[in-house]
Amino acid sequence: MNKVTEIAKRKKVEKKLLSNEKPVTVCVDAMGGDFGPEPVLEGIFRALHAKNNLKVLIAGDEDIIEPLCAEYENALPLPCSQNIDMDEHPAEAVRTKRDSSIVKGCKAVKEGKADAFFSAGSTGAVLTAATLNVGRTKGVKRPALGAVLPGRDKHKTVFLDLGANADLRPELYPQLASMGVSFYHTVVEDKVCKVGLLSNGSEDSKGSEHSLEAFQALSAAAKKAPYSFAGNAEGNDLLLGNYDVIVASGFLGNVALKSMEGAVKYVANFLKAGLGAAPLRALGLLLIKGRLKKIGFDLSGEAYGGAVLLGLKNPVLIGHGKTSAKAVCNGILSAAEMVEKGLCDSVEKELNGMEPPVEGPKPIRMPVVEEKPAEEKTEAEAQKD
């Protein structure tokens, strides 16, 4: 008996919905992730036990999902005959593999069979399938990937875009900020958020031509927006907790996120390398092992299950490819919470309440003083010298 079957054969717990609780259905892609369906099914198992009014529509190979669905009345099967691999071209795969777990899962949300979707599969495929099937919220030009980052003194910062839009027109940054603020209000707390634009310096005059134009658009929109635009944020602000929401293009955001993940791995490997050097060093490493794991856990996004695709009609969460059962469970529960708290309605209300950005004060660039080349002297002047 394999582990997948063992999960389904555990103690059967028929979880009845309470009469005063409205059920929430999250569709989960059982075939996503680098480690196969086992951690996904384990995560579903945990989520069903954690939330009484939760239903999970499981998309995947029928032989894999049926055992778990047979044991739990709140686990519903969505059989699929195809799967989209990580190395496939997203748009082409979504177009040709219409019976895949990602495409059928997103269609289930569109058809009202589920309220949200979670997958640890191909980010590009989920983005494409969700945009085409779930659909964009009214007024949204470009959906964006957002995540919650840990910070100093337990402060949390929403960071977006993490890769949905490598190129983003400057006039769309106010939309990015509004979606980030709505997300912050849903998962952190309701307050006037301090918004920053990721740049290479805190001064208003710093940045590329693109970021200066984005700065201008954010400054103009903030005059009538329910948030405070605090100017440029530097890379070290991402984890210091100096801002509530930080916005960036998908290209810059993804590079920054992967850099942080790489830094954590480097520190962990550096410390592990010293294990055999001396007994006292090994003891010291054991003492801080728990804290290192906590840092890695917080930066991985596993506390919320991954990143949320903001700007769609229903919540769509994308987990890390190397996701764990705990992360899958958290992702399912986060998706259900976003449904119950009306995240998508909040985004739509805030965006459609915004007026089109008007021309704001242009950032001032420091003047560049160039030395003029010395004029050449005539032959007569040279003789006088």
Written overview of the protein:
It is built from 13 helices and eleven strands. The chain has 385 residues and is an alpha/beta fold. The chain folds into two domains: 1-140 and 311-341, 3-Layer(aba) Sandwich (Isopropylmalate Dehydrogenase), CATH 3.40.718.10; 144-303, Isopropylmalate Dehydrogenase (3-Layer(aba) Sandwich). An eleven-stranded mixed sheet has the order 3-2-1-4-11-10-5-6-9-7-8, with helices on both faces. Mean pLDDT is 84; it is low at 11-19 and 356-374.
Question: Nearest-angstrom radius of gyration?
Answer: 25 Å
Helix content: 40-55%
> How many separate domains make up the residues?
2
Quaternary status of these chains?
Answer: single chain
Low-confidence stretches at least 5 residues in length (pLDDT < 50)?
A: 11-19, 356-374
Task: Give the CA-CA distance, first to last residue.
Answer: 100 Å
Number of helices: 13
Spatial order of the strands in the main sheet?
Answer: 3-2-1-4-11-10-5-6-9-7-8
Kindly state the number of beta strands: 11
What is the name of the CATH class of the largest domain? Alpha Beta
Please name the CATH topology of the largest domain. Answer: Isopropylmalate Dehydrogenase
Kindly report the average pLDDT value: 84
Structural class: alpha/beta
Please identify which CATH superfamily of the largest domain we are dealing with.
Isopropylmalate Dehydrogenase
Q: What is the makeup of the main sheet?
A: 11 strands, mixed
Overall spatial form: globular
Helix/strand order, N-terminal first = HEHEHEHHEHEEHEHEEHHEEHHH
Strand content: 5-15%
CATH architectural label of the largest domain: 3-Layer(aba) Sandwich
